[in-house]
Amino acid sequence: MRVRGWVTRGRRVRAAATLGALLVGAAPLAVASVPGVAGASAARAGAAVCEIRDDRLNEISGMVATDDGYVVVNDGADDAARRRIFFLDERCAVARTVSYPSRPRDTEDLAVGRDGTIWVADIGDNDRNRETIALWRLAPGADRPVLHRMTYPDNPHDAEALLVDATGRPLIITKGGSGTVVLYAPTTALKSGATTPLASVGKVVLPSTTTSNPFSFLGRGVVTGAANAPDGRRVVLRSYADAFEYDVAGDDIVAALTGGTPRITPLPDEPQGESITYSRDGRSLLTVSEAADQPAGTRPTILRYPATVAPAAHPAESTTAAPTSPAAARPAAQAAGIGGGRVVSLAAGAGTLLALVAVAGLLWRRHTDRR
After folding, report:
1. Residues in Cβ contact with 32 at an 8 Å cutoff, skipping those fewer than 6 apart
2. For domain 41-314, is the CATH number 1.10.150?
3. CA distance 101 to 351
4. Short-list 340, 110, 309, CA closest to 225
5. Which value, to the nearest 10 degrees, does the dihedral of the CA atoms of residues 133, 137, 138, 139 take?
6. Which of 25, 240, 318, 367 has its CA at 20 to 30 Å from residue 4's CA atom?
7. 215, 196, 219, 193: which is closest to 206 by C-alpha?
8. Is 156 strand, coil or helix?
């Protein structure tokens, strides 16, 4: 998302992170990971797959892999030429595009069902003022997506991630901000021309990490994308810093996310990583970042990371701490407030609170000045 709230356009986020670092000063933030997280791999940059050179694609917010390439969407672009569903070949060249029958508001993610249906998540809401959000459903072979509107049961939420379960039911994951995100699902089958109520079906507390990313600790506490593995046995959520893979038993994605312990793949220093998908064989995680706020000439590049495997049966063979239950980790996450589970030293915590207050004031002033 080309965010305009507390995490805003790339340049504004970096300014906020810099201000926070200056206010914290010489007292570094003491961060300790919450126990209960299956082994995180070393933070290594992903391997480049291909570079997307089409100038219309510099704000990519969603991606899925197909048998013959990829499908991507920009977030809510003002330029009509960018408000399309883009089909890429294996070398990242645009093979064809599909237009929307009406203008989407803020497209933030893509998901693909087991029958090949492509779902476009028009769910972004920077200012949290949308009365409805939407999904666009593109059936296999169709040349125009169908619009389905939905409404939250409580209040508007900003969201950037979408999953689809084995029955084709969509699951929307809010972006969050402090490491805790909410899951919403339709209460009835979606119908074109009708607005379907959503219901909250659970919460997810992201594990704490220290992975380097352009937005510092802010970037580790949000969900910016999600994907289903092709075999349905895993799902992944991503932040600006990491990928969190959950094992799915009995097609119950909600139980996996709310009660499972994820395995972590660091996605270090991606410029503005909002997209993630599995390769068609399920062996790799593929990501791509926005490039709009990067140096001139920078092109979005699809990166490949090895997908994680289930933890070893013998803890002695692992270099990570033995997992504990998510329930045991949750109190620490809630107490930390930032990132869902960081244990912050008292001195650093005070500095961080001052930084957050200052950043919030700065961003609010910029927000109001631009209205």
Report:
1. 208, 342, 343
2. no
3. 50
4. 110
5. 180
6. 25
7. 219
8. coil
Strands 301-306 and 284-289: antiparallel
Give the residue extent of every domain in the chain: 41-314
* Site of tokens 């046995």: 233
Q: What is the pLDDT along the chain (371 residues), one digit of tens a residue?
A: 554 444 443 333 433 333 333 333 333 333 333 434 555 566 889 999 999 999 999 999 999 999 999 999 999 768 899 999 999 999 999 999 999 999 999 999 999 999 999 999 999 999 999 999 999 999 999 999 999 999 999 999 999 999 999 999 999 999 999 999 999 999 999 999 999 999 999 999 999 999 999 999 999 999 999 999 999 999 999 999 999 999 999 999 999 999 999 999 999 999 999 999 999 999 999 999 998 878 877 899 999 999 987 654 433 333 333 333 333 333 333 333 333 333 333 233 434 343 444 444 444 443 444 33
Beta bridge partners of 98: 85
- Please list, in sequence order, all residues whose beta carbon lies within 8 angstroms of the beta carbon of residue 234, skipping any fewer than 6 positions away: 228, 245, 246, 247, 248, 278, 282, 307
Tokens found for residue 163: 């999953």
Residues near 188 by Cβ (< 8 Å), separated by ≥ 6?
A: 196, 197
CA dihedral 43, 49, 55, 58 (to 10 degrees): -30
Strands (E), 20-78: 47-51, 60-66, 69-74
Cβ pair 323, 37 in contact under 8 A: yes
Partners of 245 in the β-ladder: 236, 263
CB 166 within 8 A of CB 112: no
The DSSP secondary-structure symbol of 353 reads H
Residue whose entry in the numeric block shows the structure tokens 């402090």: 178
Tokens of 173: 């994951």
| Contact between 278 and 230 (Cβ < 8 Å) | yes
Tokens 């999600």 locate to 226
Look up the pTM and report it.
0.77
Instruction: List, in sequence order, the alpha helices (H) in the chain.
Output: 10-24, 216-219, 253-259, 326-336, 346-370
